[in-house]
Design brief:
Layout lengths: L5 H22 L2 E7 L17 H9 L1 E3 L2 E2 L4 H10 L28 H7 L4 E7 L18 E5 L10 E2 L2 E2 L2 E2 L2 E2 L6 H14 L7 E6 L11 H4 L13 H4 L20 H25 L6 E7 L23 H4 E2 L1 E4 L8 E3 L3 E2 L3 H8 L14 H4 L9 E4 L2 E3 L4 E3 L2 E3 L16 H17 L23
Parallel strand pairs: 1-10, 1-11, 2-14, 3-15, 4-5, 4-10
Antiparallel strand pairs: 2-13, 3-12, 5-8, 6-7, 8-9, 11-13, 16-17, 17-18, 18-19
Length: about 475
């Protein structure tokens, strides 16, 4: 009989452990989290829109549609909540965004999504597109917050072609200014494709893809406008000239290129550009042979805004409001290994659930002190526990009821919020009012500090240290 020496046994165990770790790593899915900016409920084909969105529709057909997915009614709060798993009110961010004059950002002592994934063995953690979570200091930079690379812009509402905001160039590659030329949606999409193409199939990656489309300023590409009957000899609507950006520094070059004949036409073309790149991303992961082990989670950060072309029909209200049109967002998840194609769910889910759900998927213990819950059961058609989701200000929603500004709706049957039932249900009003007041006391919200009046942004939006 041949006896194994202790050294051989140790080497064998180390080799086995290495193989096990590699296999375990392969089981962890690639994660692509795509966030649209101000996309309305009725701005995708599968919800009845005239806008052509074959790629987003494909995600729905091949995955799970979360039909009651709630977000904050504004950009920065939703982004902060999905990256942390907590209500943004906890760090004075609910009714505001980190706009150009604001200081601060997501607190650096919080563990955000890329930092969590790094603990699970993810090493390629890339952020693309709109950051909008702090630009006043180097410590708020995406790479300072756990991402390994960044390509995009710090602020919202940049010019799609010049990449200017407040007269300064806001386009960056990692920490450096980028002088890349092109339509921002194309630049973001092509960089995502480049990143995925260069990833190692043996290691999982995370791509946070935050398109600035279809947020204002309203600018589209000619080839997309032509899909919506653009007439180069037709007149333009005046809405596109200064709407929403009066007083913008560098107005002579801001937001003027790429305007269609009318608002909806331009908006539609912007959505189509984004949808096209989503399709190219899907094609690439299929070509690389990693489709089955890749999660693609697509959502909008809030509802659309009608004065910029968004359409939330049949939902009431829009961006900036706690009505369904502002806070009920499109959200679809594709994961071939776990989700049955064509699944739909009316369970109550939210932006703050993304962090704990992905935490569970990658095999980490649940974080304490967060507000979101792990919704993996929805992926496999199981029932979640009953819950409430605080929507900010005087709004809260449960499976059956929603209360906003003192009005009460049986929201599971009345998604348009037409029938106020507050007088017929005083006990429900009392209970939900008590919950709202509890959240207001626990989550006081607030406004980030601002730079003084007359302040001008740094050259090329370089973040100071």
């Amino acid at each position: 009989m041949i006896k194994k020496s202790p050294l051989i046994v140790v080497l064998f165990l180390l080799f086995s452990l290495n193989i096990y770790c590699q296999i375990d790593q392969l089981k962890k899915p690639n994660i692509i989290l795509i966030v649209a900016d101000d996309l309305g409920w009725n701005d995708v084909s599968f919800n009845g829109s005239e806008i052509s969105t074959p790629s987003i529709d494909s995600l729905k057909l091949q995955g799970l549609s979360l039909k009651r997915f709630y977000v904050s009614p504004k950009c920065s709060p939703t982004r902060a909540g999905l990256l942390t798993g907590i209500y943004p009110d906890r760090f004075n961010l609910r009714g505001y965004v980190y706009s150009t004059r604001y200081k601060g950002g997501v607190p650096t002592d919080l563990i955000i999504l890329p930092e969590m994934l790094k603990k699970a063995g993810y090493n390629d953690l890339a952020a693309f597109g709109k950051w909008h979570l702090g630009h006043s200091n180097h410590k708020y930079h995406p790479i300072s917050q756990g991402f390994t690379s960044f390509y995009g812009h710090y602020n919202g509402a940049i010019d799609y072609y010049s990449h200017l905001r407040d007269g300064e160039l806001d386009w960056h590659k990692d920490y450096k200014t980028s002088y890349d030329v092109g339509y921002s949606t194309d630049l973001i999409g092509s960089e995502v494709v480049r990143f995925i193409s260069n990833t190692d199939e043996s290691n999982p990656f995370f791509a946070y893809v935050a398109f600035n489309a279809p947020h204002s300023p309203m600018q589209a590409k000619l080839e997309e406008l032509e899909k919506y009957n653009y007439d180069p000899k037709g007149e333009e609507e005046e809405y596109l000239i200064v709407e929403g950006h009066k007083g913008e520094i560098g107005m002579d070059v801001y937001g003027l290129k790429g305007r269609g004949n009318n608002l909806r036409q331009t908006y539609s073309a912007m959505v189509s550009s984004m949808d096209s790149w989503i399709g190219k991303i899907m094609d690439l992961i299929r070509l690389k042979g990693i489709e089955n082990n890749t999660i693609i989670w697509f959502l909008s950060d809030n509802g659309g805004i009608s004065k910029y072309g968004g359409n939330n029909f049949p939902l009431r209200g829009g961006k900036h409001t706690q009505w369904e049109g502002g806070v009920r967002a499109i959200s679809v998840v594709k994961w071939p290994e776990k989700i049955k194609p064509g699944t739909e769910s009316n369970q109550l889910t939210s932006y703050i659930d993304i962090f704990p759900t992905l935490e569970n998927i990658v095999g980490l213990p649940a974080s304490k002190g967060i507000d979101g819950i792990n919704i993996i059961d929805v992926f496999i058609n199981k029932t979640l526990p009953l819950r409430h989701i605080y929507l900010g200000k005087d709004a809260i929603v449960s499976k059956v009821w929603k209360m906003n500004q003192g009005e009460l709706f049986k929201i599971e049957d009345d998604i348009s919020e037409r029938n106020d039932l507050s007088f017929e249900n005083p006990s429900v009003v009392k209970k939900l009012t008590k919950l709202i007041n509890h959240y207001k006391e626990m989550l006081p919200g607030g406004k980030p500090p601002t730079h003084p009046i007359g302040w001008r942004p740094p050259k090329n939006w370089k973040m100071p240290k």
